[in-house]
Amino acid sequence: MRPGDPDAVEQLFNDAAPTYDRLNDLLSLGLHRQWKRQLIRHLDPRPGEVWLDLCCGTGDVALALSRRVRPGGQVVGVDAAEAPLAVARSRAGREPWLPVEFQQGDALDLDFETASVDGVVMAYGLRNLADPAAGLREIKRVLRPGGRAGLIDFNRLPSTSLAARFQRAYLRRVVVPVAEGLGLKDHYAYLEASLQRFPDGASQELLAKEAGFSRACHRAIAGGLMGLLTLRD
Ligand SMILES: C[S@@+](CC[C@H](N)C(=O)[O-])C[C@H]1O[C@@H](n2cnc3c(N)ncnc32)[C@H](O)[C@@H]1O
């Protein structure tokens, strides 16, 4: 599949939705939960604030945010694909007191007013967008002055580095074979292809500055395998 093709990406995540969470836990040994917690702690969402979780998938980050913005706050999870949103809504239904809702939408063309939200999170979404720079501009547009955003994704490493070789081996020898067992081989082979066209940390900082953010800081976590991009309006 062609990385960045919106229809193919939507189909991929619709197909993967039923096993997505289990596979994520398995492939990261549950560590993705810790990395996401680290991101949320850093962003420090507060009671009364309005936050967006873009490319929210099955909604784990949106739910975690919604526990932090109570009372008085609101979280909206947005995703292009309907199947992960159905999982997210069912999860939210188990904690109906949480101020969270889920909407189908395009992270590149959000149905939100300019300068209307306090914060934005995007976990493993930027790499999937047809135009990551446009995604950053759209985040900047919806953030109110002084707002903050945080993005987590795989880290694009220099291709000859030891960490990059480990990352490639992990994707080819662990991720793809495990996904193959669930009939999702091609879907997860896409991960390496999407990473090859993904800007590295320094380029992400540059794109964010070009989008108008006053502060942009990318740092590697998880032994260099993942990257956190934190932004200030
Ligand atoms: C790798 S999943 C990440 C899901 C979740 N945030 C997580 O960390 O588990 C990427 C998600 O981005 C969504 N996506 C891709 N392109 C999108 C777009 N243009 N607008 C909104 N969602 C998009 C996909 O449907 C998919 O659910």
Structure write-up:
By secondary structure, the protein is α/β, with parallel strands linked by helices. It has one domain (6-157, 198-232): 3-Layer(aba) Sandwich (Rossmann fold). Helix content is 48%, strand content 21%. It contains eight helices and seven strands. A seven-stranded mixed sheet has the order 3-2-1-4-5-7-6, sandwiched between helices. The longest helix is centred in the first third of the chain and has 23 residues, at 6-28. The structure holds S-adenosylmethionine. Residues 6, 9-10, 13, 55-57, 61, 78-81, 84, 106-108, 123-125, 128-129 line the site of S-adenosylmethionine.
Task: Give the secondary structure arrangement, pairings included.
Layout: H1 6-28, H2 31-43, E1 50-54, H3 60-68, E2 74-79, H4 82-93, E3 100-104, E4 117-123, H5 132-142, E5 143-154, H6 162-181, H7 185-196, H8 201-211, E6 215-221, E7 226-232
Parallel strand pairs: 1-2, 1-4, 2-3, 4-5
Antiparallel strand pairs: 5-7, 6-7
Helix pairs in contact: 1-4, 5-8, 6-7
Name the descriptors.
alpha/beta; 7-stranded mixed β-sheet; binds S-adenosylmethionine; globular; Rossmann fold; 21% strand; 233 residues
Distance N terminus to C terminus?
35 Å
What coarse outline follows from CA principal-axis ratios?
globular
Read across the widest sheet, the strand sequence of neighbours is 3-2-1-4-5-7-6
Indicate the structural class: alpha/beta
Structural domain count: 1
In DSSP terms (H or I, runs of 4 or more residues), the helix count works out at 8
Listed once per kind, the bound small molecules are: S-adenosylmethionine
The radius of gyration is 17 Å
Give a quick account of the main beta sheet: strands, pairing sense, barrel closure.
7 strands, mixed
CATH superfamily: Vaccinia Virus protein VP39
- Count the E strands: 7
Helix content: 40-55%
Mean pLDDT: 94
Name the CATH class: Alpha Beta
What are the secondary-structure elements, in order, as H or E? HHEHEHEEHEHHHEE
Which architecture per CATH? 3-Layer(aba) Sandwich
